[in-house]
Every structure is written in structure tokens, then in C-alpha cells.
Design goal:
Largest sheet: 6 strands, mixed
Shape: globular
Strand order of the largest sheet: 1-2-10-8-4-5
Number of helices: 9
């Protein structure tokens, strides 16, 4: 009875709020993450970059053209419903890059509580939770952004590195010891934010850290 009710609820939800392709906005099957036409434009090879500390960062898309617009809508224009489709693209890219997907935890770059309140959600957290759900892996809040800083996209590369110093701290160091962690963000630009977060996670004793995002600027 429980599963029947869930099925009826999902049917009603999809009837009133049909699933749309985040890349072109046409209605698609609820089990799909993109329409056929947009899927044809996905890069065959994921973008791989390395940040300070030698950590590998994987992204399915370059931050340009339609993919950049999708992230902007997701991040700034209340399109939280894009999270699952974009998470699927991240996981697909990780697999294509030969990443071992057997992570102990999936986590995200945190947002300051005031910024999160103003936006209504942390887009990186939504991505990480959807990745965890699709991969059947545990999501955790590993880091806290306890100091408010300037918005990164308004700064130069050198300013970004300075801007993120000392704004994050671990929530539970013991939980992270010896664990393989996947750290999720929305965009990889200079890598300064991810580098600062991986440095903290490494000090907490993580055995391995991999980073991923929807788009890479490189």
C-alpha cells in the first residue's frame, strides 16, 4: 500500500509539475535527466583539473555557452529542481574519468548561513545530496563556513585565494579520519575554494579526497 501511494503521489506531481530538461526546458520523461537533443551535445570526455595539494577535480561541462547558463539559472534563479539532473551528469563524468566511486561520504562546499538564508538553498549541498542518493552513499555536513567573506566571482585569482583563508572549519574531525570523501561544488574556477576545503579535510585525516562540480572554467 505504501509503494502504491508513493506511485500515485509521483504521478500526480509529474502531472501538475512535469519534469523538464534543464538544458532546453522541454518536458521529458520523469526517468530522464536530459532530452535526446541536449544529450548529443554533452562532451564525451570530462574535464579534469588539479588544484593545490594535487587533488583531482572532475566536471562534465566547460563553463561556457548553454552549460554556463544552466548553472546560473540553478544558482541564482531558483531552479533547485535542476539538482538531480546535474548530479547525474557529475556522476557520469566521474565514472568516465575512471574514478573509484566507492566513497565513504559525499559532502559539499558549505555556504555561510546568512548567504544561504538569502538564496534559500546551497546549490552545492543540493548537488551533493542528489549525488549521495543516486550513488547510495552517505551525505554529511563535514565543514562549516563560519566567517562571511566577499563573493568569489567578483574577485581576481590572487584575491580569491586570500578571500577563502580561514573561513571554513570542520564539524566533526573524528568522523573523517581514514575516510574517502567526494567534495562537491557547482563551478571550478581558480580552485581556491576547493583547495581550502581539501586542506581542512586532509588535516582531519581523510584517506582520499576527490572533487567534482558541474562546470569547470578551464
Amino acid at each position: 500500500m505504501k509503494y502504491k501511494l508513493k506511485g500515485l503521489y509521483e504521478f500526480a506531481l509529474n502531472s501538475f509539475f512535469p519534469v523538464r530538461c534543464p538544458y532546453c526546458d522541454i518536458v521529458i520523461d520523469p526517468q530522464r535527466y536530459a532530452c535526446d537533443e541536449c544529450s548529443k551535445n554533452f562532451p564525451e570526455i570530462p574535464i579534469t583539473t588539479y588544484i593545490e595539494g594535487g587533488y583531482r577535480c572532475i566536471a562534465p561541462f566547460l563553463y561556457k555557452d548553454n552549460f554556463a547558463e544552466v548553472v546560473k539559472r540553478f544558482k541564482f534563479h531558483n531552479r533547485a529542481q535542476y539538482a538531480k539532473a546535474l548530479a547525474f551528469a557529475i556522476i557520469t563524468a566521474l565514472g568516465s574519468a575512471g574514478t573509484d566511486l566507492d566513497f565513504d561520504y559525499i559532502t559539499c562546499v558549505p555556504m555561510h548561513k546568512e548567504q544561504k538564508l538569502n538564496r534559500g538553498y546551497n546549490q552545492s549541498e543540493l548537488l551533493a545530496k542528489e549525488c549521495a542518493d543516486l550513488m547510495r552513499t552517505k551525505y554529511i555536513h563535514s565543514l562549516e563556513k563560519y566567517k562571511k567573506n566577499q563573493v568569489q566571482h567578483t574577485l581576481s585569482g590572487a584575491e580569491r585565494r586570500k578571500n577563502v583563508k580561514g573561513v571554513y572549519r570542520p564539524i566533526n574531525k573524528e568522523m573523517l579520519k581514514g575516510k574517502r570523501v567526494l567534495l562537491i561544488d557547482d563551478i571550478i574556477t581558480t580552485g581556491s575554494t576547493l583547495a581550502e576545503c581539501t586542506k581542512i579535510l586532509s588535516k582531519c585525516g581523510c584517506s582520499d579526497i576527490c572533487c567534482a562540480a558541474v562546470c569547470s572554467a578551464d
